[in-house]
Amino acid sequence: xxxxxxxxxxxxxxxxxxxxxxxxxxxxEASLDPNxxxxxxxxxxxxxxxxxxxxxxxxVAAQNAYFKESGAFTGEISPVQLKDxxxxxxxxxxxxxxxxxxxxxxxxxxxxxxxIKVGLNVILCVGETLEEREAGKxxxxxxxxxxxxxxxxxxxxxxxxxxxxxxxxxxxxxxxxVATCAxxxxxxxxxxxxxxxxxxxxxxxxxxxxxxxxxxxxxxGELGAQPDVDxxxxxxxxxxxxxxxxxxxxx
Length: 251
What we know:
Structural class: alpha/beta
Helix content: 40-55%
Shape: globular
Number of helices: 12
Mean pLDDT: 96
Radius of gyration: 17 Å
């Protein structure tokens, strides 16, 4: 099965109205690979303005959402509100949300279920710490993060079709360290095998599993050539001109 290559840009808590408008203008004017799906995730303050500005097939994602539709949850945004505003993507379970804001895998799963329920597409982030990798626990950790989502989405292919899994080894995020091609391929293959066993072979073959963790224009070529690497979730480099090179890595 041919899976459409996917490149996401997670701007995190970076950028200004001016700088992000310039970035989107550059994407609008670039010759982007039409066979690659492109989604950018700016800070929530800039979601709507960048949604209006984005062209050239570029889509916009929120960096987070809560699992309730509405209510007294100060500072949160609901999936219903995102959908109402015309935003069709959301990033959930990023390691920075898990570590800095104490989001459990159960909470991430509830958010994923709530987002899919209203028709959002989800970039679901999983990944291990350096200590966990060195202890040989990578697969077990990632499976423990995925199993909570599986409990809620079960084997419903129509729900899994709205999920892109982003494997992000925590030790490689923002550190300049990049997983080797062999490490990335092994982790992605393990995720696909686990989903095949616990959900279905069809879902496992169709789902896109993308890599995140200090992805750059220099590192993306060999990584993107791995059979189970279906794209990237790019952090710091998504704010630089090389983001276009990463998008066009398959061109």
